[in-house]
Amino acid sequence: MQAFKIQGQNRLFGTVDIHGAKNAILPIMAAALLTDKPIRIENISFLSDVSILSQLLQSLGMKIHNETDAITLQADNITSTHADYDFVSKMRGSFWVLGPLLARFHEAEVSLPGGCAIGTRPVDLYLSALTEMGAEISVENGYVRAKGPLHGAEIFFPKISVGATHNTIMAAVLTPGQTIIHNPALEPEVIDLIEMLIKMGAKIEGVGTKTLIITGVKKLTGCHHKIIPDRIETATFAVAAAMTRGRIYLKGARMDLMDAVVDVLRINHVIFEQDDNGLLVDATHAQLTSTPITTCEYPGFPTDCQALITSLLAIANGESIVEERIFENRFMHIPELQRMGAHVRNVNNSTIILSGVSELSGTTVMASDLRGGVGLVLAGLVAKGQTIVKRIYHIDRGYYKLEAKLSGLGAVIERIDID
Ligand code: UD1
User: Fold this and answer.
1) 160 C-alpha vs ligand 1 centroid, how far in Å?
2) Which of 256, 306, 333, 410 is the most exposed place for a label (fewest CB within 10 A)?
3) Global pTM?
4) Which residue puts its alpha carbon closest to atom 11 of ligand 1?
5) Mutate which of 91, 162, 332 to test ligand 1's pocket (most atoms within 8 Å of Cβ)?
6) Strands (E), 218-311
7) Are residues 301 and 214 in the same domain?
8) Does residue 46 sit in the same domain as residue 182?
9) How far is the CA of 140 from the centre of ligand 1 (A)?
10) Is 116 a catalytic residue?
């Protein structure tokens, strides 16, 4: 097992590269199943989630070629439509092979997913959309078995789901007739998937609105696509700058993808300057003050940034209310943050109140999920003394070389082996 050992209270200064968004890379890799032509994806970081999905796609017969920051996928000899538990249980995004397999091969058998334990995370919306499109679906022995062929349909999502939107779009682009999706997710990663599908020849109208109209085509072709920068990684370094009162240039980052986070940090007197190559975050005059946070679907405050901002609010002046509206179990990092000295009260399962303290203190804590784990790393960066964050395999799912990037900015952090 590996852990991060952090010596806190160093301010962060310098430049860091922001990689392509994990949450866009995963659906876009799955979309390579929709064509027999090569798909080249650029601005890739080889996170453990990317490697799990690569292994799953290879088990289906996909050819994959990795370069330094690009990956080429070709599905010209798919030999299986069975996505095994061994892969899907490790990472929820791998469930997204269901839609493309069903659309192109008219059958799929995909294990029910795993992923971070941040809530029950059902797949009912995925399955009801595919059923509307004519799929015969059964769930047996932990697997979803689906049979086509599919046809166009009008789908109304009663709740916004990023994954169900990805999956339904991927199914619809290769399905005869017109599919109308009401109430899709509008996250930038969904738009990135749509832009790449359009390059492949998909016919999609209403991009960025609450109604998508997709006209199925017979064949899709190959393309090159550069993934959008990771807005959650960007937010992580911006919050790290704010907490340490540092100044960081985020190369490749785009502020327009994370307005809600920028708005909160501006309240804390953090200054942002966007140019063509990246984003400067200047927090040298930051004053951390209580700020109410409610997580929402895009363009609201992202649930994936809740744990990051919670660590900041733990050392901000005054009382902050944080309400989590997307996942029901996303405060798992809080007991560990309390062990570092944070003052937190639970109002109910989805709401906490933080009373800012002047200083956190280092101790040994355990990451319980990806973003909660990074929240603890951020707390360690400002805590007095040494913090050990255990179970960092959660963090490796979504952050590429986090310790190297933070060290390059002046943090004292190293990866260590522990029992
Ligand atoms: C994706 C992101 C994750 C982010 C989340 C919300 C990836 C790999 N993961 O996860 O980082 O936190 O969006 O922005 O891109 N739901 C149902 N039924 C369904 C599907 C979802 O009730 O069939 C519920 C979920 O339990 C949750 C809510 O809808 O409460 C949103 O989940 P969803 O948007 O689907 O999240 P993911 O796609 O799993």
Assistant:
1) 8
2) 256
3) 0.96
4) 304
5) 162
6) 223-226, 247-251, 271-275, 278-282, 293-294
7) no
8) yes
9) 23
10) yes
159 lines ligand 1 (CB under 6 A): yes
User: What CATH number is given to the structural domain containing 184?
Assistant: 3.65.10.10
Mean pLDDT confidence for 400-417 = 97
Q: Which domain holds residue 111?
A: 22-226
3-state secondary structure 172-238: HCCCCCEEEEECCCCCHHHHHHHHHHHHCCCEEECCCCCEEEEECCCCCCCEEEECCECHHHHHHHH
268 and 340: one domain? yes
Q: What is the pLDDT of residues 83-102, one digit of tens each?
A: 999 999 888 888 999 999 99
Total domains in the fold of the chain: 2
190-244 residue pLDDT tens: 999 999 999 999 999 999 999 999 999 999 999 999 999 999 999 999 999 999 9
Name the amino acid, one letter, at 249: Y
Sheet holding 39-42, edge to edge: 63-66, 70-74, 39-42, 223-226
Query: Is the minimum distance from the CB of 161 to ligand 1 under 6 angstroms?
Result: yes
Looking at ligand 1, which residue's alpha carbon is closest to its atom 21? 161
Q: Are residues 33 and 161 in the same domain?
A: yes
3-state secondary structure of 167: helix
* End-of-domain residue from the set 192, 226, 260: 226
Q: Is the CB of 95 under 6 A from ligand 1?
A: no
Beta bridge partners of 76: none
